[in-house]
Specification:
The complex is a heterodimer of chains A (278) and B (292). Chain A is mainly alpha-helical and 278 residues long. Chain A has 2 domains: 56 residues, no CATH class; 211 residues, MetI-like (MetI-like fold). Chain A is built from 12 helices and no strands. In chain A, helix 3 packs across helix 12. Chain B has one domain: MetI-like (MetI-like fold), CATH 1.10.3720.10. Chain B is built from 14 helices and no strands. In chain B, helix 11 packs antiparallel against helix 14 and helix 13 packs antiparallel against helix 14. The chains are: A mainly alpha (278), B mainly alpha (292).
Chain lengths: 278, 292
Protein backbone atom coordinates (compact mmCIF):
# COMPACT_ATOMS: atom_id res chain seq x y z
CA UNK A 1 0.00 0.00 0.00
CA UNK A 2 2.69 2.38 1.09
CA UNK A 3 4.74 1.44 -1.93
CA UNK A 4 1.87 2.12 -4.26
CA UNK A 5 1.20 5.49 -2.65
CA UNK A 6 4.84 6.33 -3.12
CA UNK A 7 4.65 5.46 -6.76
CA UNK A 8 1.61 7.69 -7.26
CA UNK A 9 3.42 10.60 -5.62
CA UNK A 10 6.41 10.06 -7.88
CA UNK A 11 4.28 10.05 -11.01
CA UNK A 12 2.43 13.16 -9.90
CA UNK A 13 5.74 14.93 -9.34
CA UNK A 14 7.04 13.78 -12.69
CA UNK A 15 3.94 15.11 -14.44
CA UNK A 16 4.22 18.44 -12.60
CA UNK A 17 7.88 18.83 -13.57
CA UNK A 18 7.08 17.96 -17.18
CA UNK A 19 4.22 20.45 -17.27
CA UNK A 20 6.43 23.15 -15.79
CA UNK A 21 8.96 22.58 -18.56
CA UNK A 22 6.54 22.05 -21.42
CA UNK A 23 3.58 24.39 -20.93
CA UNK A 24 5.35 27.54 -22.21
CA UNK A 25 6.42 25.67 -25.36
CA UNK A 26 3.09 24.04 -26.02
CA UNK A 27 1.22 27.28 -25.47
CA UNK A 28 3.32 29.36 -27.82
CA UNK A 29 3.39 26.60 -30.45
CA UNK A 30 -0.40 26.28 -30.35
CA UNK A 31 -0.83 30.06 -30.36
CA UNK A 32 1.47 30.45 -33.33
CA UNK A 33 -1.05 28.55 -35.48
CA UNK A 34 -4.08 30.55 -34.36
CA UNK A 35 -5.41 33.67 -36.00
CA UNK A 36 -5.24 36.87 -34.01
CA UNK A 37 -8.99 37.04 -33.61
CA UNK A 38 -8.95 33.56 -32.05
CA UNK A 39 -6.02 34.46 -29.81
CA UNK A 40 -8.06 37.33 -28.40
CA UNK A 41 -11.34 35.48 -28.13
CA UNK A 42 -10.58 34.64 -24.51
CA UNK A 43 -11.33 30.96 -25.21
CA UNK A 44 -8.78 28.18 -25.16
CA UNK A 45 -10.17 26.27 -28.11
CA UNK A 46 -11.97 28.96 -30.08
CA UNK A 47 -11.92 27.71 -33.66
CA UNK A 48 -9.32 25.07 -32.79
CA UNK A 49 -10.04 23.38 -36.10
CA UNK A 50 -8.96 26.50 -37.96
CA UNK A 51 -5.27 26.31 -37.13
CA UNK A 52 -3.24 27.74 -39.98
CA UNK A 53 0.15 28.97 -41.08
CA UNK A 54 -0.83 32.59 -41.63
CA UNK A 55 1.35 33.89 -38.80
CA UNK A 56 4.35 32.10 -40.27
CA UNK A 57 3.56 33.40 -43.71
CA UNK A 58 3.34 36.95 -42.46
CA UNK A 59 6.65 36.60 -40.61
CA UNK A 60 8.54 35.03 -43.48
CA UNK A 61 7.27 37.29 -46.22
CA UNK A 62 7.85 40.94 -45.49
CA UNK A 63 4.79 41.81 -43.51
CA UNK A 64 3.80 43.60 -40.40
CA UNK A 65 6.80 42.23 -38.52
CA UNK A 66 9.29 43.19 -41.14
CA UNK A 67 12.62 41.74 -42.04
CA UNK A 68 12.61 38.46 -40.23
CA UNK A 69 14.44 36.55 -42.95
CA UNK A 70 17.35 38.97 -42.66
CA UNK A 71 17.55 38.50 -38.89
CA UNK A 72 17.55 34.76 -39.40
CA UNK A 73 20.29 34.89 -41.99
CA UNK A 74 22.40 37.24 -39.86
CA UNK A 75 22.03 34.93 -36.87
CA UNK A 76 22.92 31.91 -38.95
CA UNK A 77 26.06 33.46 -40.46
CA UNK A 78 27.27 34.93 -37.17
CA UNK A 79 26.61 31.80 -35.12
CA UNK A 80 28.17 29.49 -37.72
CA UNK A 81 31.37 31.49 -38.10
CA UNK A 82 31.68 31.99 -34.33
CA UNK A 83 31.31 28.25 -33.88
CA UNK A 84 34.05 27.38 -36.34
CA UNK A 85 36.43 29.98 -34.88
CA UNK A 86 35.75 28.92 -31.29
CA UNK A 87 36.25 25.23 -32.00
CA UNK A 88 39.50 25.84 -33.90
CA UNK A 89 41.00 28.07 -31.22
CA UNK A 90 39.74 25.82 -28.43
CA UNK A 91 41.18 22.76 -30.12
CA UNK A 92 44.69 24.18 -30.26
CA UNK A 93 44.40 25.70 -26.80
CA UNK A 94 43.18 22.49 -25.25
CA UNK A 95 45.91 20.51 -27.00
CA UNK A 96 48.58 22.84 -25.68
CA UNK A 97 47.20 22.81 -22.15
CA UNK A 98 46.81 19.07 -22.12
CA UNK A 99 49.99 17.97 -23.85
CA UNK A 100 52.77 20.49 -23.28
CA UNK A 101 54.65 21.31 -20.15
CA UNK A 102 54.69 25.08 -19.82
CA UNK A 103 55.20 27.69 -17.17
CA UNK A 104 52.00 29.48 -16.16
CA UNK A 105 49.79 26.65 -17.35
CA UNK A 106 47.92 26.42 -14.07
CA UNK A 107 47.11 30.10 -14.01
CA UNK A 108 45.80 29.89 -17.56
CA UNK A 109 43.51 27.06 -16.56
CA UNK A 110 42.29 28.95 -13.49
CA UNK A 111 41.65 32.06 -15.57
CA UNK A 112 39.49 29.97 -17.90
CA UNK A 113 37.18 29.36 -14.99
CA UNK A 114 37.49 32.88 -13.63
CA UNK A 115 36.45 34.35 -16.97
CA UNK A 116 32.90 33.41 -15.97
CA UNK A 117 33.09 36.15 -13.36
CA UNK A 118 33.57 39.02 -15.75
CA UNK A 119 30.20 40.69 -16.08
CA UNK A 120 29.44 40.97 -19.79
CA UNK A 121 27.71 44.29 -19.19
CA UNK A 122 31.06 45.59 -17.94
CA UNK A 123 33.27 44.08 -20.67
CA UNK A 124 31.07 45.40 -23.42
CA UNK A 125 31.85 49.02 -22.50
CA UNK A 126 35.58 48.91 -23.30
CA UNK A 127 34.99 46.34 -26.06
CA UNK A 128 32.69 48.75 -27.81
CA UNK A 129 35.47 51.33 -27.80
CA UNK A 130 38.00 48.83 -29.11
CA UNK A 131 35.71 47.66 -31.92
CA UNK A 132 34.90 51.26 -32.73
CA UNK A 133 38.57 52.08 -33.18
CA UNK A 134 38.97 48.97 -35.35
CA UNK A 135 36.02 50.14 -37.44
CA UNK A 136 34.10 46.97 -36.64
CA UNK A 137 30.91 48.47 -35.22
CA UNK A 138 27.88 47.29 -37.17
CA UNK A 139 29.78 44.45 -38.83
CA UNK A 140 29.54 40.67 -38.66
CA UNK A 141 33.19 40.54 -37.64
CA UNK A 142 32.59 42.83 -34.65
CA UNK A 143 29.77 40.67 -33.34
CA UNK A 144 31.62 37.44 -34.03
CA UNK A 145 34.64 38.68 -32.07
CA UNK A 146 32.49 39.24 -28.99
CA UNK A 147 30.77 35.88 -29.42
CA UNK A 148 34.14 34.15 -29.30
CA UNK A 149 34.40 35.30 -25.68
CA UNK A 150 31.10 33.63 -24.92
CA UNK A 151 31.96 30.22 -26.29
CA UNK A 152 35.72 29.89 -25.92
CA UNK A 153 36.42 29.36 -22.19
CA UNK A 154 33.95 26.53 -21.87
CA UNK A 155 35.09 25.08 -25.20
CA UNK A 156 38.72 24.88 -24.12
CA UNK A 157 37.83 23.44 -20.76
CA UNK A 158 35.58 20.82 -22.33
CA UNK A 159 37.97 19.69 -25.08
CA UNK A 160 40.88 19.66 -22.64
CA UNK A 161 38.90 17.20 -20.54
CA UNK A 162 38.65 14.87 -23.52
CA UNK A 163 42.36 15.26 -24.31
CA UNK A 164 43.26 14.50 -20.73
CA UNK A 165 41.32 11.28 -21.00
CA UNK A 166 43.60 9.98 -23.72
CA UNK A 167 46.77 8.35 -22.38
CA UNK A 168 49.89 10.18 -23.48
CA UNK A 169 51.37 6.87 -24.55
CA UNK A 170 49.08 6.92 -27.56
CA UNK A 171 50.51 10.10 -29.05
CA UNK A 172 54.01 9.14 -27.97
CA UNK A 173 53.65 5.89 -29.81
CA UNK A 174 52.41 7.80 -32.83
CA UNK A 175 55.42 10.10 -32.67
CA UNK A 176 57.81 7.19 -32.51
CA UNK A 177 56.12 5.91 -35.61
CA UNK A 178 57.30 9.09 -37.25
CA UNK A 179 54.30 11.42 -36.89
CA UNK A 180 55.09 15.00 -35.90
CA UNK A 181 53.21 16.41 -32.88
CA UNK A 182 50.61 17.88 -35.21
CA UNK A 183 50.34 14.64 -37.08
CA UNK A 184 49.43 13.03 -33.79
CA UNK A 185 46.89 15.77 -33.14
CA UNK A 186 45.11 15.42 -36.43
CA UNK A 187 45.29 11.70 -37.06
CA UNK A 188 44.86 10.26 -33.63
CA UNK A 189 43.65 12.69 -31.02
CA UNK A 190 41.03 14.57 -32.99
CA UNK A 191 39.15 11.47 -34.07
CA UNK A 192 39.05 10.27 -30.48
CA UNK A 193 37.96 13.64 -29.08
CA UNK A 194 35.36 14.27 -31.77
CA UNK A 195 32.46 14.06 -29.28
CA UNK A 196 34.05 16.80 -27.17
CA UNK A 197 34.45 19.00 -30.19
CA UNK A 198 30.86 18.45 -31.18
CA UNK A 199 29.67 19.55 -27.75
CA UNK A 200 31.97 22.59 -27.78
CA UNK A 201 30.61 23.46 -31.22
CA UNK A 202 27.04 23.08 -30.06
CA UNK A 203 27.69 25.29 -27.03
CA UNK A 204 29.41 27.96 -29.12
CA UNK A 205 26.52 27.97 -31.58
CA UNK A 206 23.93 28.11 -28.82
CA UNK A 207 25.49 31.07 -26.97
CA UNK A 208 26.02 32.99 -30.19
CA UNK A 209 22.47 32.28 -31.37
CA UNK A 210 21.11 33.41 -28.01
CA UNK A 211 23.24 36.49 -27.38
CA UNK A 212 21.34 39.72 -27.06
CA UNK A 213 23.67 42.06 -25.16
CA UNK A 214 26.69 42.20 -27.48
CA UNK A 215 24.75 42.03 -30.73
CA UNK A 216 22.29 44.70 -29.67
CA UNK A 217 25.06 47.21 -29.03
CA UNK A 218 27.39 46.38 -31.89
CA UNK A 219 24.84 46.04 -34.64
CA UNK A 220 23.31 49.33 -35.64
CA UNK A 221 21.34 48.45 -38.75
CA UNK A 222 19.25 45.71 -40.28
CA UNK A 223 22.28 44.29 -42.09
CA UNK A 224 23.73 42.90 -38.86
CA UNK A 225 20.74 42.50 -36.55
CA UNK A 226 20.20 39.00 -35.19
CA UNK A 227 17.06 37.14 -34.16
CA UNK A 228 17.03 38.13 -30.46
CA UNK A 229 17.22 41.77 -31.51
CA UNK A 230 14.48 41.25 -34.05
CA UNK A 231 12.26 39.55 -31.48
CA UNK A 232 12.82 42.36 -29.06
CA UNK A 233 11.99 44.91 -31.74
CA UNK A 234 8.61 43.29 -32.52
CA UNK A 235 8.00 42.84 -28.87
CA UNK A 236 8.90 46.37 -27.88
CA UNK A 237 6.85 48.11 -30.56
CA UNK A 238 3.82 50.07 -29.43
CA UNK A 239 1.40 47.78 -31.20
CA UNK A 240 2.29 44.18 -30.50
CA UNK A 241 1.12 41.69 -33.12
CA UNK A 242 1.08 38.59 -31.02
CA UNK A 243 0.29 36.14 -33.79
CA UNK A 244 3.41 36.87 -35.85
CA UNK A 245 5.54 37.29 -32.73
CA UNK A 246 4.60 33.83 -31.56
CA UNK A 247 5.50 32.40 -34.95
CA UNK A 248 8.78 34.35 -34.96
CA UNK A 249 9.62 33.01 -31.51
CA UNK A 250 8.98 29.44 -32.62
CA UNK A 251 11.21 29.92 -35.66
CA UNK A 252 13.91 31.40 -33.40
CA UNK A 253 13.99 28.46 -31.01
CA UNK A 254 13.71 25.65 -33.55
CA UNK A 255 17.33 25.60 -34.84
CA UNK A 256 18.88 25.10 -31.39
CA UNK A 257 16.25 22.56 -30.43
CA UNK A 258 16.79 20.55 -33.61
CA UNK A 259 20.57 20.65 -33.16
CA UNK A 260 20.15 19.58 -29.57
CA UNK A 261 17.83 16.74 -30.55
CA UNK A 262 20.51 15.33 -32.82
CA UNK A 263 23.39 15.77 -30.40
CA UNK A 264 21.49 15.16 -27.17
CA UNK A 265 23.49 12.19 -25.91
CA UNK A 266 26.86 13.82 -26.53
CA UNK A 267 25.80 17.16 -25.14
CA UNK A 268 24.51 15.74 -21.87
CA UNK A 269 27.62 13.62 -21.52
CA UNK A 270 29.95 16.52 -22.30
CA UNK A 271 28.22 18.97 -19.99
CA UNK A 272 28.17 16.64 -17.04
CA UNK A 273 31.61 15.11 -17.47
CA UNK A 274 33.53 18.05 -16.03
CA UNK A 275 31.51 18.56 -12.90
CA UNK A 276 31.21 14.88 -12.04
CA UNK A 277 34.93 14.38 -12.36
CA UNK A 278 35.38 17.48 -10.19
CA UNK B 1 68.02 24.62 -27.90
CA UNK B 2 67.29 21.51 -25.93
CA UNK B 3 64.48 19.27 -26.97
CA UNK B 4 62.60 20.11 -23.78
CA UNK B 5 62.76 23.85 -24.49
CA UNK B 6 61.77 23.36 -28.08
CA UNK B 7 58.68 21.47 -27.01
CA UNK B 8 57.67 24.15 -24.51
CA UNK B 9 58.07 26.77 -27.23
CA UNK B 10 55.84 24.76 -29.56
CA UNK B 11 53.35 24.61 -26.70
CA UNK B 12 53.21 28.38 -26.39
CA UNK B 13 52.84 28.71 -30.15
CA UNK B 14 49.89 26.33 -30.15
CA UNK B 15 48.40 28.22 -27.25
CA UNK B 16 48.99 31.64 -28.82
CA UNK B 17 45.52 32.12 -30.35
CA UNK B 18 43.91 31.46 -26.98
CA UNK B 19 46.25 33.88 -25.25
CA UNK B 20 45.53 36.54 -27.84
CA UNK B 21 41.78 36.17 -27.37
CA UNK B 22 41.96 36.20 -23.59
CA UNK B 23 44.34 39.11 -23.32
CA UNK B 24 42.77 41.24 -26.03
CA UNK B 25 39.11 40.51 -25.46
CA UNK B 26 38.91 39.88 -21.74
CA UNK B 27 41.84 40.97 -19.65
CA UNK B 28 42.62 44.16 -21.48
CA UNK B 29 38.96 45.29 -21.46
CA UNK B 30 38.64 44.35 -17.79
CA UNK B 31 41.76 46.36 -17.00
CA UNK B 32 40.58 49.27 -19.11
CA UNK B 33 37.23 49.23 -17.32
CA UNK B 34 39.08 49.21 -14.01
CA UNK B 35 40.99 52.37 -14.97
CA UNK B 36 37.92 54.00 -16.46
CA UNK B 37 36.09 53.48 -13.18
CA UNK B 38 38.39 56.10 -11.61
CA UNK B 39 37.67 58.68 -14.31
CA UNK B 40 34.76 60.83 -15.41
CA UNK B 41 34.84 59.11 -18.82
CA UNK B 42 31.55 59.77 -20.59
CA UNK B 43 30.22 60.79 -23.95
CA UNK B 44 30.08 64.38 -22.71
CA UNK B 45 33.76 64.95 -21.86
CA UNK B 46 36.53 65.36 -24.39
CA UNK B 47 39.40 64.35 -22.14
CA UNK B 48 38.42 61.95 -19.34
CA UNK B 49 39.98 63.03 -16.05
CA UNK B 50 41.02 61.08 -13.04
CA UNK B 51 38.45 61.59 -10.30
CA UNK B 52 39.76 59.18 -7.69
CA UNK B 53 37.16 57.19 -5.85
CA UNK B 54 34.31 59.55 -6.72
CA UNK B 55 32.39 57.06 -8.86
CA UNK B 56 32.61 54.51 -6.09
CA UNK B 57 31.67 56.78 -3.24
CA UNK B 58 28.74 58.06 -5.30
CA UNK B 59 27.37 54.53 -5.44
CA UNK B 60 28.27 53.38 -1.97
CA UNK B 61 26.66 56.42 -0.34
CA UNK B 62 23.47 56.03 -2.37
CA UNK B 63 20.64 54.12 -0.65
CA UNK B 64 19.21 53.34 -4.10
CA UNK B 65 22.41 51.45 -4.94
CA UNK B 66 22.16 49.35 -1.79
CA UNK B 67 18.51 48.54 -2.52
CA UNK B 68 19.50 47.29 -5.98
CA UNK B 69 22.47 45.47 -4.54
CA UNK B 70 20.23 43.71 -2.01
CA UNK B 71 17.71 42.82 -4.71
CA UNK B 72 20.46 41.32 -6.85
CA UNK B 73 21.60 39.11 -3.99
CA UNK B 74 18.00 38.14 -3.28
CA UNK B 75 17.50 37.16 -6.90
CA UNK B 76 20.65 35.05 -6.91
CA UNK B 77 19.82 33.46 -3.55
CA UNK B 78 16.24 32.62 -4.47
CA UNK B 79 16.92 31.46 -8.01
CA UNK B 80 19.94 29.32 -7.18
CA UNK B 81 18.39 27.65 -4.13
CA UNK B 82 15.15 26.89 -5.96
CA UNK B 83 17.11 25.60 -8.93
CA UNK B 84 19.14 23.37 -6.67
CA UNK B 85 16.25 21.93 -4.67
CA UNK B 86 14.04 21.39 -7.72
CA UNK B 87 16.91 20.23 -9.92
CA UNK B 88 18.03 17.69 -7.34
CA UNK B 89 14.47 16.47 -6.75
CA UNK B 90 14.01 15.87 -10.44
CA UNK B 91 17.39 14.13 -10.64
CA UNK B 92 16.37 11.80 -7.80
CA UNK B 93 13.07 11.18 -9.55
CA UNK B 94 14.86 10.37 -12.81
CA UNK B 95 16.81 7.67 -11.00
CA UNK B 96 13.55 5.85 -10.30
CA UNK B 97 12.51 3.50 -13.03
CA UNK B 98 9.24 5.19 -13.98
CA UNK B 99 7.41 4.93 -17.27
CA UNK B 100 7.89 7.82 -19.67
CA UNK B 101 11.25 8.67 -18.16
CA UNK B 102 12.92 8.50 -21.54
CA UNK B 103 10.73 11.36 -22.75
CA UNK B 104 11.44 13.50 -19.74
CA UNK B 105 15.17 13.04 -20.27
CA UNK B 106 14.74 14.01 -23.89
CA UNK B 107 12.90 17.28 -23.29
CA UNK B 108 14.49 18.37 -20.05
CA UNK B 109 17.33 20.45 -21.51
CA UNK B 110 15.26 22.33 -24.06
CA UNK B 111 14.67 25.41 -21.88
CA UNK B 112 18.43 25.71 -21.52
CA UNK B 113 19.29 25.65 -25.23
CA UNK B 114 16.90 28.36 -26.48
CA UNK B 115 17.70 32.09 -26.53
CA UNK B 116 16.74 34.05 -23.43
CA UNK B 117 14.98 36.57 -25.67
CA UNK B 118 12.54 33.89 -26.81
CA UNK B 119 12.01 32.64 -23.26
CA UNK B 120 10.99 36.15 -22.32
CA UNK B 121 8.45 36.32 -25.16
CA UNK B 122 7.06 32.90 -24.17
CA UNK B 123 6.56 33.93 -20.55
CA UNK B 124 5.23 37.35 -21.36
CA UNK B 125 2.72 35.80 -23.75
CA UNK B 126 1.44 33.60 -20.91
CA UNK B 127 1.17 36.61 -18.60
CA UNK B 128 -0.47 39.29 -20.74
CA UNK B 129 -3.68 40.86 -19.41
CA UNK B 130 -6.93 39.03 -20.04
CA UNK B 131 -5.80 36.81 -22.94
CA UNK B 132 -2.67 35.31 -21.43
CA UNK B 133 -2.79 31.64 -20.48
CA UNK B 134 -2.61 32.37 -16.75
CA UNK B 135 -5.38 34.96 -16.78
CA UNK B 136 -7.64 32.87 -18.99
CA UNK B 137 -7.15 29.98 -16.62
CA UNK B 138 -7.92 32.12 -13.56
CA UNK B 139 -11.06 33.39 -15.27
CA UNK B 140 -12.14 29.80 -16.00
CA UNK B 141 -11.74 28.60 -12.42
CA UNK B 142 -13.60 31.58 -11.03
CA UNK B 143 -10.64 33.61 -9.82
CA UNK B 144 -11.30 36.39 -12.31
CA UNK B 145 -10.57 38.98 -9.65
CA UNK B 146 -6.93 37.97 -9.70
CA UNK B 147 -6.30 38.61 -13.36
CA UNK B 148 -3.71 41.22 -14.22
CA UNK B 149 -0.64 41.85 -16.38
CA UNK B 150 1.70 39.84 -14.21
CA UNK B 151 4.93 41.37 -15.47
CA UNK B 152 3.49 44.83 -14.87
CA UNK B 153 2.59 44.18 -11.26
CA UNK B 154 5.17 45.45 -8.73
CA UNK B 155 4.45 42.48 -6.47
CA UNK B 156 4.69 39.75 -9.07
CA UNK B 157 7.31 40.97 -11.55
CA UNK B 158 10.25 39.98 -9.35
CA UNK B 159 8.97 36.46 -8.56
CA UNK B 160 8.38 35.99 -12.28
CA UNK B 161 12.00 36.89 -13.01
CA UNK B 162 13.04 34.29 -10.44
CA UNK B 163 10.73 31.78 -12.11
CA UNK B 164 12.24 32.37 -15.56
CA UNK B 165 15.71 31.81 -14.11
CA UNK B 166 14.54 28.60 -12.48
CA UNK B 167 12.81 27.42 -15.62
CA UNK B 168 15.86 27.96 -17.77
CA UNK B 169 18.63 26.62 -15.56
CA UNK B 170 17.07 23.96 -13.35
CA UNK B 171 17.56 21.31 -16.09
CA UNK B 172 21.31 21.86 -15.99
CA UNK B 173 21.36 20.99 -12.29
CA UNK B 174 19.25 17.95 -12.99
CA UNK B 175 21.45 16.42 -15.66
CA UNK B 176 24.63 17.17 -13.71
CA UNK B 177 23.33 15.79 -10.42
CA UNK B 178 21.72 12.85 -12.20
CA UNK B 179 25.07 11.89 -13.72
CA UNK B 180 26.68 12.24 -10.30
CA UNK B 181 23.97 10.11 -8.68
CA UNK B 182 24.58 7.35 -11.19
CA UNK B 183 28.25 7.31 -10.32
CA UNK B 184 27.67 6.60 -6.61
CA UNK B 185 28.62 2.95 -6.03
CA UNK B 186 25.56 0.81 -5.29
CA UNK B 187 27.50 -0.96 -2.56
CA UNK B 188 27.26 2.17 -0.38
CA UNK B 189 23.49 1.89 -0.28
CA UNK B 190 23.45 -1.84 0.21
CA UNK B 191 25.79 -1.58 3.16
CA UNK B 192 23.64 1.17 4.69
CA UNK B 193 20.51 -0.90 4.19
CA UNK B 194 22.10 -3.80 6.04
CA UNK B 195 22.92 -1.38 8.86
CA UNK B 196 19.22 -0.50 8.94
CA UNK B 197 19.42 3.07 7.59
CA UNK B 198 16.09 4.32 6.24
CA UNK B 199 15.58 6.30 3.06
CA UNK B 200 16.16 9.70 4.70
CA UNK B 201 19.26 8.54 6.48
CA UNK B 202 20.66 7.10 3.30
CA UNK B 203 19.98 10.41 1.54
CA UNK B 204 21.64 12.51 4.25
CA UNK B 205 24.60 10.29 4.90
CA UNK B 206 25.37 8.87 1.49
CA UNK B 207 23.72 10.74 -1.36
CA UNK B 208 24.28 14.35 -0.26
CA UNK B 209 27.93 13.93 0.76
CA UNK B 210 28.67 12.12 -2.51
CA UNK B 211 27.11 14.99 -4.43
CA UNK B 212 29.19 17.64 -2.71
CA UNK B 213 31.66 18.43 -5.47
CA UNK B 214 29.25 18.44 -8.43
CA UNK B 215 26.78 20.44 -6.34
CA UNK B 216 29.36 23.08 -5.55
CA UNK B 217 30.35 23.35 -9.19
CA UNK B 218 26.81 23.83 -10.52
CA UNK B 219 25.97 26.24 -7.72
CA UNK B 220 29.01 28.43 -8.31
CA UNK B 221 28.50 28.44 -12.07
CA UNK B 222 24.93 29.58 -11.61
CA UNK B 223 25.64 32.12 -8.91
CA UNK B 224 28.00 33.76 -11.40
CA UNK B 225 25.55 33.36 -14.29
CA UNK B 226 22.54 34.70 -12.41
CA UNK B 227 24.45 37.54 -10.78
CA UNK B 228 25.82 38.73 -14.11
CA UNK B 229 22.70 38.03 -16.17
CA UNK B 230 21.28 41.04 -17.84
CA UNK B 231 18.89 40.03 -20.60
CA UNK B 232 16.16 38.29 -18.62
CA UNK B 233 15.31 41.50 -16.80
CA UNK B 234 16.19 43.97 -19.51
CA UNK B 235 14.01 42.19 -22.06
CA UNK B 236 11.05 41.40 -19.83
CA UNK B 237 10.54 44.33 -17.48
CA UNK B 238 13.43 46.65 -18.23
CA UNK B 239 13.87 46.96 -14.47
CA UNK B 240 10.28 48.03 -13.84
CA UNK B 241 7.54 48.31 -12.80
CA UNK B 242 8.68 51.25 -10.67
CA UNK B 243 12.17 49.84 -10.38
CA UNK B 244 11.06 46.66 -8.58
CA UNK B 245 13.21 44.41 -10.75
CA UNK B 246 16.27 46.64 -11.20
CA UNK B 247 19.53 44.72 -10.57
CA UNK B 248 23.21 45.63 -10.76
CA UNK B 249 23.65 44.36 -14.32
CA UNK B 250 20.76 46.46 -15.64
CA UNK B 251 22.14 49.43 -13.70
CA UNK B 252 25.50 49.12 -15.44
CA UNK B 253 23.77 48.89 -18.80
CA UNK B 254 21.51 51.85 -18.17
CA UNK B 255 24.32 54.02 -16.82
CA UNK B 256 26.49 53.21 -19.83
CA UNK B 257 23.99 53.17 -22.69
CA UNK B 258 21.15 55.42 -21.58
CA UNK B 259 23.17 58.05 -19.75
CA UNK B 260 26.52 57.35 -21.48
CA UNK B 261 28.38 57.70 -18.16
CA UNK B 262 31.02 55.06 -18.87
CA UNK B 263 33.13 55.85 -15.81
CA UNK B 264 30.22 55.52 -13.42
CA UNK B 265 28.97 52.38 -15.16
CA UNK B 266 32.44 50.83 -14.97
CA UNK B 267 32.57 51.48 -11.23
CA UNK B 268 29.37 49.51 -10.66
CA UNK B 269 30.64 46.73 -12.92
CA UNK B 270 33.98 46.59 -11.09
CA UNK B 271 32.13 46.32 -7.77
CA UNK B 272 30.19 43.38 -9.24
CA UNK B 273 33.37 41.75 -10.41
CA UNK B 274 35.07 42.28 -7.05
CA UNK B 275 32.23 40.59 -5.24
CA UNK B 276 32.25 37.62 -7.61
CA UNK B 277 36.04 37.40 -7.36
CA UNK B 278 35.78 37.17 -3.58
CA UNK B 279 33.04 34.60 -3.92
CA UNK B 280 35.07 32.49 -6.36
CA UNK B 281 38.17 32.62 -4.17
CA UNK B 282 36.23 31.37 -1.17
CA UNK B 283 34.85 28.63 -3.38
CA UNK B 284 38.27 27.57 -4.70
CA UNK B 285 39.53 27.45 -1.14
CA UNK B 286 36.60 25.27 -0.10
CA UNK B 287 37.20 22.87 -2.99
CA UNK B 288 40.93 22.70 -2.25
CA UNK B 289 40.33 21.86 1.40
CA UNK B 290 37.74 19.33 0.29
CA UNK B 291 40.05 17.47 -2.04
CA UNK B 292 43.06 17.73 0.28
Amino acid sequence: MNRQKNLVVKYVLLVLFSLFILVPFVWILYSSFRSESDLFSGKFFQNAGGLNLDNYASVLTKGQTGEFGTYFLNSLVIASISTVVVVLIALFGAYALSRFRMRGKDSIIVSLLLSNMFPQVLLVIPLFGILFRMNLIDSYAGIIITHIILGLPFGIWLIKGYFDGIPKEIDEAAMIDGLKPFGALFRIIIPITAPGMVVAAFYAFMVSWGDFLFASLISQSLGTQTLPIGLNKFFGSTQIHWGPINAATVITIIPTIVLYAFLQKWVVEGLTAGSVKG
Amino acid sequence: MTNEKKRALTGYLVLAPVLVVFVLLMFYPALKAFFDSFTNYSIFVQQPMFVGLQNYSLQLSNPEFWAIFGRTLLLVGLAVSLQYVLGLSLALLLKEDLKGMKWVKLIIMIPWVIPVASTVVMFDWMMIPKYGLVNMFLEKVGLGGWTRYWFGDPQFAFPLIVMMHVWRNMPFYTITLFAALKSIPKGFYEAAQIDGANTWKRFWHITLPQLKVPSMIVIVLHVLWTFNNFDFIYLSTGGGPVGTTEVLATQVYQTAWTYFEYGKASAIGILMMGLMLAFSLVYIKLVRSESA
